Hints:
- This protein starts with 5 loop residues before the first helix and ends in a 9-residue tail after the last strand.
- By secondary structure, the chain is an alpha+beta fold.
- Strand 4 (107-113) and strand 5 form a beta hairpin.
- 34% of the residues lie in helices and 40% in strands.
- It has a five-stranded antiparallel β-sheet with strand order 3-2-1-4-5.
- It is elongated.
Amino acid sequence: xxxxxxxxxxxxxxxxxxxxxxxxxxxxxxxxxxxxxxxxxxxxxxxxxxxxxxxxxxxxxxxxxxxxxxxxxxxxxxxxxxxxxxxxxxxxxxxxxxxxxxxxxxxxxxxxxxxxxxxxxxxxxxxxxxx
Length: 131
């Protein structure tokens, strides 16, 4: 580096373009994967199957503000895992209200299309009373 400024031309002429191509490649691959999943979901049949909720989980993310270190933003993503009668489990992202109304052990009809959650209709529990 010293007093010879030619290293700057090597950086901007070689390293910087390679870096930009790699970053653009990563962005293109990510966008392609998302587009492919979207297309697969659209072509998948809408399915409704008997299932039960076997697990609930949340993912909480906190983001610090760039302007100051005092403020932060928190977001929560909600997931429910369903098990079909054949034992296959599927996890779907759901909204907070659906998550709050759901309990492990609930049984009903799960509707989905590919990896897209379309809903869950609970079957009422039948309680027997012993007299």
